[in-house]
Each structure stands twice: as C-alpha cells, then as structure tokens.
Amino acid sequence: MIPEPAPETAYRVLARKYRPETFADLVGQEAMVRTLRNAFKAGRIAQAFILTGIRGTGKTTTARIIAKGLNCVGPDGTGGPTTEPCGVCVHCRAISEGRHVDVLEMDAASRTGVGDIREIIESVRYRAAEARYKVYIIDEVHMLSTNAFNALLKTLEEPPEHVKFIFATTEIRKVPVTVLSRCQRFDLRRIEPEVMMGLLRRIATAEGAEIEDGALALIARAAEGSARDATSLLDQAIAGGGTATAEQVRAMLGLADRGRVLDLFDLILKGEAAGALEELGAQYSDGADPVMVLRDLAEIAHWVSVLKVSPGASEDPTLSPDERARGQAMAAAIPMRVLARFWQMLLKALEEVAVAPNAMMAAEMAVIRLTHVADLPSPEDLVRQLQGAKGTPAMGAGMPGPAPRAPVPQASRGAGVSMGGVSGGGAVALPAGQPHPLDRFARFEDVVQLIRDQRDIGLLMEVESGVRLARYQPGRIEFEPGPMASPDLAQRLGQRLQSWTGTRWGVSVVSEGGQPSIREAQLAQASALEAEALAHPLVQAALRAFPGAKLKVQSREEKAQAAEVEALPEVPDEWDPFEE
Ligand SMILES: [Zn+2]
User: Fold this and answer.
1) Residue 377 CA to ligand 1 centre (angstroms)
2) Residue 85 Cα, ligand 1 centroid: separation in angstroms?
3) How high is the pLDDT of residue 333?
4) Which of 135, 179, 232, 574 could cross-link to 103 by cystine, CB 3.0-4.6 Å?
C-alpha cells in the first residue's frame, strides 16, 4: 500500500512555505549572492563557509541553498555546481526536504560534545554516497566546545576534496580565529524595511490575503530585519481572514497607535502632566502594553534626534506622511539637550519597569518625571542663573562677573583672629561693590547653621530650645524666650554673632508672637512621625512580635543631617601654634 500524500490544502506556516529555495528568492542579501556567483563561475569554491547575522536573516536557508548549488545536477542530470540550483533534480529535492544522505545538518546548540565532532570527522574520510560533495552544515557553531573546535580544525587544515563545511552563527566573535581564517565569511544583513515590505506584499498576494500597507509597515518594523519573524507575524495577521488592518496588527503586536504615541510625546514635552497621564491611561485601556509605550517614546526621541542631524532620515517607508511631517516639526522645535535627556530618562524608566511590581504604575511615574524634562534648565543655564542671583540689585546688573564675597572673620576657627578684635564698633564699613556680609544670613536657619559651623554647642542647644522666633531679618532677631532660656541669651547671642560676622546684630526679647522653637517643632514632628509609624502595618506587626520594644523614629532629614555631621571635619579648639 502506498501512503497517501498530504493533501495540497494542508496548512503550512508561511515561514516554511515561502522559505527561499534559490538565491533569487533570498531577499536583501545581494552582496553575498554576487560573491558566491563569481566564485562558483570561476570554479574557486571555498572549502568552508561561515554565515553570520542576527536570527531570521536566512543563515540556515542560505546554507541549504549553497548545499543544493554544490550538488545540483540540473533537470537533465548533467549540470555542475551552480548558484542557480534547479530545484527539481533528485539532490535539490532531497536537500530541500532535509533528507539528503550526504548533506548532514547539526545544531551545535544541542550537540556540543566532542564525540559528535569525532563522528563527523570519522565519516569525512568516506566519499559521498550519492552526491558530488559531502556537505556538513553546523548551525550555531560558536556553541562547540574548545575540544570540538580543535578536532574540527584538524579536518579544516587538510580537508578531503569531496567535503564542504557550512557554518552558521549568530555570534561570530565566539568562533576561534583559527577556524574563521579557514572559512569564506558572509555577513547576512538585516533586511531593510522597504525590501521586507516588498517581500511581505508578495507573500500576501500569493496567499490571496488582503492587508493594509500600514499593517505591513508595522510588521516590517516589529520584525527588526528578520524575514522569518516578519513572515510569522504576517501569518498571524492574515489568519483571521478579511482585510488585515493596521489597527488589528497594532493590537496583535501590543503596540500603541504611533500617532497617539506622538500625541503623548507632544503632551509630555509641553509639560502637561495631567493630559499625558490621561493619554497614557487611554492607550492602556485600549490594550497598549505600558512597556511598549515607553519603548515607542524612546524610539521617537531617537528618531527625532536623528531627524535633527540628518533630515533625510524621514524617508523611512514604515512612516505615514503625517508621521513624517510631525517628526520634522518636532526636530525643528525641540532642542537636542531635551531629546538627549528624554532618551536617558526613558532608558532608565524601562529598567525600572522591568523590576516594578506594576508596569503601568512605573510607566505613569516615568511620564510624570518626563513632563519636567522640558522645564529643567541645562547645567549651563543653571550656572548662569546662579551667577545672576548672586549680585544684589543695588550693585546693578552690569557687573563684570560675580564679585567675590567679603571674607567673614571667624574668631574660633584657626589662629590669629582674637575674639575681641572686631567687637565694640558699629557696622563695619564695606568697600563699595562688595556684597554685604549679612547676605548669607537670609533666614534664621542660616544663623543656626553658623552657630553649628562654629561648633558652639552650648549656644546651639540654647538657641534651638530657647528661641521662639517672632521676627527675623538679617542682622535683627526678635524672639520670645522659651521656659528654659537663660536671661542673658539675647545679649550673648548678639555678641557671638557680631564677633563671627564682623557686623552688629540687634537681638531682642519680645513677650508674645513667638513661633515654636526649633526643638519644640522637632518634637512635634517626631511625635507625628511616631504616630504615623505606629499606624504602619509592618510596625504594628513588629511590635506584636516583640512586645515592649521601643520605637526609634528617624525622619529622612534627620538621617541626612546625621550623615552630614559625621562627614564634618574636626576643628581644633583655639589651637595656637605658638603655644607650648
Ligand atoms: Zn538541482
């Protein structure tokens, strides 16, 4: 009984059905085909070939076509090696179907042992059973072990006439140079979008399938140069019957509408956080993957940057005329530094999305942060702004550069300046054009910081707990004394400030209107913080587990301050080099 042939209507995946059988079918690899054709014509066929390129560019397909070309005898059985295998002779057919006894295909990714290579090398000595050449096709050859490579190398050094090797790899750098140097190398290129769209269109037509150009463009873009991926995607896209639309393909790929991603990009750059979040949310509920939206935004940032540098890049066939126009408008309007920062932040956001518990949340955080990109001044602008802010209006804006600050005499730091040196007089007369020494005490906190810097811990504690500030301006302090404040605090504070700053300070006591002291405010904040912490489920669980445990609450500011204090250099107290 003869087995029934598979019916013609049996479904085959498109990638296999339209697998190129000849070099003419192989799209986008013209350079390789030309070189091979010349070598075959001249009768200088290499002993070994190595094919490299990303997945799906046709490495194993090319290997089979070469194997067919080597062994083809033509329809009449008299032909020699050719780059145009006939496809009908016994050898061509057997190789196409992967059942030729003299063409051995192996995948090094699954068979890496030196034993397999030994088997091959043993069999190399025997002549081909039926064909002109014995052809060994080794896929992912970089996966072979060092021993396997060494065994292979011996054969490559003195190969029998009737043997040809065809290696394929996605990682050419992992193939030893000793092996590479004995192979003719072909780099299979990514298939260009135009070429890919042409290929997909031909397949769709051959299948009698209707598909929009926009849909083909999306597939070509998603396949990133891999014909196999593109064909598989086309297969899925037309599986439903009817006309495959761009919208369907977009949904299939989990892509957001590119026009809408451009809208989102626009909103973010305008700093419209609310609008941007709304648009992101709308795309999400329409089925867009938040990660893909971020990737699309990054892609747009890259694309607009490229357009800025080379406007010709807008001729990408996967773009609609509307998208092209919008891209060009953006390239003209957005400064490069904004685009560059946008790109960096998106890359970071994509990393974060990968570890975030919820991708949409991470995407929303990223969008909020990005809406601030356009407002952020560049480092240069920032320096300019800071320099501008230093000068006071009285000195006029026409100052040539920032004026140096007047040195502030510091009594207790270092040697040489005595405590009484500048006390007693009124405000020190300043040379014209110098900033006033009180400029750096815009806020009461600056005064407290000065006391801290001077390491007068006693005064610091008194000020922090005893000064309920009522009014403050640089050089003038009015406060309501706290319950523990000593009666002469105002007088001592005034004297100390005067000696440190070289300027007279008016410090006086008032009977009402004082704010809580620094210590009182800290205590209030700490108890609020403690209450908040106690309410936290984790803390409650911990307290249940360790009854009677004491809670130590530290605010972020306190933590930072503690770290700062630790980092302060020690100041020797009143160190005098002339003292014994
Ligand atoms: Zn043939």
Assistant:
1) 68
2) 5
3) 86
4) 135
